Each structure stands twice: as C-alpha cells, then as structure tokens.
Amino acid sequence: MAKKLLHLFTLFFLLKVTFADAAVILQYHHVSEKLPPVTSISSQQFTEHMSYLKEGNFNVMALDKMLQALQAGQTLPPKSVAITFDDGYDNNIEQAAPILEMFGFPYTIFVNPKLIDEKQHYLMSWEQLRRLANKGALIANHSAKHDYLHLHLDNETKEQWHKRVAQDITWSEGRIASEIGHNTKLLAYPYGEFSTELQQLVRSLGFIGIGQHSGAVGKHTDFTRVPRFPASGVYAALSTLSVKLHAHPFAIKKLSYQNSVTTNHQPELTIDFESVDFSQHQFTCYVSGQGVANTKWLALNTVSIRAKEQLPTGRSRYNCTAPLKTGKSKQFYWFSQPWVVTTP
C-alpha cells in the first residue's frame, strides 16, 4: 500500500512540474462576418471557441497577470489561457465584447493611440475603450501607428532609430495611461515582426514584447518574444485549435541565430534545451510552405534547424513540435521561430 501511495505521489509531482508552468495566449483581430476571412472569425465561431474554453474548464486569465507570474517563476493553474485582440477594431465592442462578457472572460486589446486620435472610422474610440476597460478589459500598446518598428528610415543612424522607436513606444504607453489608466508595459509588435535590436530596446524600456508566432509560454520564455496562437481565418477550426490549447513550451536554455530579420534565405537556428524530456526522433520542425526542415542533433540537448530550400522574401517560420511523454494523446511541446527575409 505504501509503495502504491509513493508511486501516486511521484506521478502527481511529475505531472505538476510538467504542466504547472504551461500557458497559451490566443490572438484575434476581427470578429465579423463582413470582413475578409484571413484575419476574421464569425461571431458564431468565436462563441464556439469561448464555449470550448468554458466547457473544458480552462483557466482564462488576464494577460498581464499571466506574464507577471511566469516572469517571477511562479506556477499557473493547468490549462491557463489568455485572450488577446490586435488593433482595436470597432467590431470588437460590437460583437466580441458581448460574447466575452457573457462568459465572464478577461481579455486584452492592443491599440494604436495615434490612429485612435486621428479618429480612424474602423477603430474604437477612447470612450468605447474606456467602457470596455471599466468592464475588465485590459488596453495595451501596439505602437503609435502600427509601423514596422524594426525598420530604419533612409539615412537613419542606429542612434536615431533607437530614439525614434523608444519615443514611439513610450509615448503610446503614456497616451493609453492618460486615457484609460492602464500602464502594463506590454507591447504587441506590429505585424508580429521584431529584430534583435528591437528586442534589446524593448527590454531596456522594461517592456514585454509579444509576437504573432505560434507556441506556448512558460518560465523559460524569452519575454521580448512572447508567442501567441492565431485563432482566426484558417486557424479558427476547433479541430486544430484544441490541440494548440493543450500545447506546452519547450524548456529552452538558449536560442542562437544571427537575427530574425535577415537577408539570409536559409537561416540557421540552434536550440539549447534546459532538459530534453521528449524523444529526439519525434522532434520535428516544419518550414512555411516547404514541409519538414533539416534538423541535426549536435549534442544530447542541442539541435540545429535549417530550411531545405530558400525562404521567400517576407515572413516565414520554423515551427517545431514534439509529443509529451505522458501517454496523453494530442499533447505537444510547441515552439516557433519567425523570420523576416529582406533584400540587402
């Protein structure tokens, strides 16, 4: 009997260590039937997503509290999820907010303050955002005008770029604070694009940088490149989204690559894992539009990944997964490396 209890306690402890620091962030844009489906989801589909979270007993929590806890090395309840929207479109208050209010779920909206000040017709006003904030929504920073923050202007020095982008980020944060009262220091990168120097700038300003590449988050996450799972358009199907909602982060010690914004059409990525509690032969990486990538294990905890063919100019990704050794089906470790291939 004592032996059986010891076995059960050990199993519980292992499961707690494996699962307690895993969380998932969902990304939406439009909740609308009238707009192009590439970044949209219908109100019916969105309701189905929220119903799945409710019926599945997911722990839907505020994004700032989730990331603060993980940064502090704290554990989270199993199946923790945060819901986010980019850009602050007017359909968020018209269609998304009533559904979220019905389920009682917290959520975050990343906005562009200068575009709101310009009264762009497709965006919510400050008054509307205050109304949602008073009901529990978190309003956060998406830059002033949704510019490509990593790009340098013509003849702009690195120091001039640094000053301009730092001012953009801090001005936007101050504008949100003055209108809404929120000062979360969460920055969702416009278009999900970030370079190494932009990550360094975001870190120096004390912000958390959030992308649009897929993957789960945990205590090993680099908080200048937090991943989110897109949940609209082709990614809206519950059959695939349900798998992502149960995803877990790899325990990554170090990522090595030249820059995520690169002129190299076959960039190499090396991952040093803190621990490898998955089968090496089941670790697989996929390249946007190509299929399986070349992977080479350099050591027990180190793997190198490279596309078999050249990446096209623009955005691409390496998506890496491996099934958990828990005996539970459809549960995977998940990591994504975004690339922006540019011309010299």
TrEMBL record:
Residues 79-344 form the NodB homology domain. GO terms for cellular component: extracellular region. CDD domains: CE4_DAC_u4_5s. The keyword Transit peptide does not apply. Keywords: Signal. One of its GO terms (molecular function) is hydrolase activity, acting on carbon-nitrogen (but not peptide) bonds. Residues 1-22 form the signal peptide. GO terms for biological process: carbohydrate metabolic process. It is found in: Secreted. PANTHER family: POLY-BETA-1,6-N-ACETYL-D-GLUCOSAMINE N-DEACETYLASE (PTHR34216:SF3), PTHR34216. This is Polysaccharide deacetylase family protein.
